[in-house]
Amino acid sequence: MTTQTPARPQLIDLHPPSADMHRLVRDGLQREPRQLPAWFLYDSEGSRLFDQICQQPEYSLTRTEIALLESSAEEMAQAMGSGVIVEFGAGSARKVGPLLEAMRPSAYVALDISADHLRQATAALQNQHPWLPMLGICCDHSQLDALPDHPLLRGKRRVGFFPGSSLGNFTRSEAIALLRRFRQLLDGGPLLLGLDQPKTSALMEAAYNDAAGISAAFAHNLLHRLNNDLNADFKPDAFGYEAVWQEPENRVRMALISKRDQTVSVGGEAWAFHEGQPLVTEYSVKYSPEMARDLADEAGWRWCRRWHDPADELSLHWLEAAN
Ligand SMILES: C[S@@+](CC[C@H](N)C(=O)[O-])C[C@H]1O[C@@H](n2cnc3c(N)ncnc32)[C@H](O)[C@@H]1O
């Protein structure tokens, strides 16, 4: 008897070209404080390091969200109905499995900025769910105006899935803009949105600065990436790393901190850093259930319900497009 290997999912590559990346870096280095878009953290090595972060004892978000999806998938699938699942920022796509089996969608479409990682993730998922047509789209979903015209999407109801509390990388106004954009990309379809809730500052800071140093390596990899992809000459050892809970903004700020006065060249342009100057690599805004409802409301979504873990530390919110 022969067993058939499932076909590899197709990948549509819409990654921003390096001229756009140069422009974003220049814009980010002119901000106060300096800050780059969080997606710059995710080249192949960054995606690999993020997967390691998810296994650290201090970072419970992934384990909690997977357990919640496993325990509530049947109920969630009832809310989801039929159609195509469109996952934003899918990463290793390790969370969607229970939803695929409970909902049996007509197709699975994964969006992510990290092309090679997305290729591997969809290939691995295809092996686990050989019956399911799949498509990967490498893109910056915060800039996408429409999903590509593709047979797997054409005429199909779209059900969005955005786990991992990745919305927390955006400031409040950016998060509202992103949720509005997702509404447009989903063409009237609903959205299952995973958001982590605030905890003590000690727990929050440890989650993003683990004892094994993986979060620090993840942030430093951004500098290696800029050196490799954008002809920069950062010396990663000349920057420290910190994760600080900022109470008024309900967020953790992750930053590389210049250890001394130094000048760095990016694509031939010189940038001076003074000792102690931060380069913000990402924020992680935490949302209480009330904050999540308000946010959804402002972004044109009708909040319908949420599922949460036993300790009520993380929620999967069910949103439908408001009329
Ligand atoms: C925090 S990780 C979460 C991964 C996975 N969804 C999870 O819950 O474990 C964020 C993921 O979103 C991707 N990503 C970040 N910013 C993005 C953007 N602007 N457009 C598309 N993908 C993005 C990253 O490559 C990464 O895989």
Summarize the structure.
The protein has 323 residues and is an alpha/beta fold. Helices cover 34% and strands 26% of the residues.
Protein traits:
323 residues; alpha/beta; eight-stranded mixed sheet; four-stranded mixed sheet; 34% helix; globular; binds S-adenosylmethionine
Describe the fold and architecture.
By secondary structure, the protein is an alpha/beta fold. The chain has a domain at 57-199 and 286-321: 3-Layer(aba) Sandwich (Rossmann fold). The protein is 34% helix and 26% strand. It contains nine helices and 14 strands. The chain has helices spanning 18-29, 44-53, 61-80, 97-103, 115-128, 172-185, 201-207, 214-230, 289-298; strands spanning 10-13, 34-35, 84-88, 107-112, 134-138, 158-162, 191-196, 239-246, 251-258, 262-266, 269-273, 278-285, 301-308, 314-321. The strands form three sheets. It has an eight-stranded mixed sheet, sandwiched between helices. β8 (239-246) and β9 form a beta hairpin. α3 runs parallel beside α4 (97-103). The model has no long low-confidence stretch (mean pLDDT 97).
- Report the sheet with the most strands, covering strand number, pairing sense and barrel closure: 8 strands, mixed
The CATH architecture assignment of the domain at 57-199 and 286-321 turns out to be 3-Layer(aba) Sandwich
**Number of beta strands:** 14
Radius of gyration: 20 Å
Q: Which residues form runs of ≥5 with pLDDT under 50?
A: none
At the fourth level of CATH, the homologous superfamily of the domain at 57-199 and 286-321 is Vaccinia Virus protein VP39
Query: Element order, helices and strands?
Result: EHEHHEHEHEEHEHHEEEEEHEE
Cα-to-Cα separation, first versus last residue = 54 Å
Strand order of the largest sheet: 1-5-4-3-6-7-14-13
- Structural class determined from secondary elements: alpha/beta
Tell me the name of the CATH class of the domain at 57-199 and 286-321: Alpha Beta
What binds here, in terms of ligands, is: S-adenosylmethionine
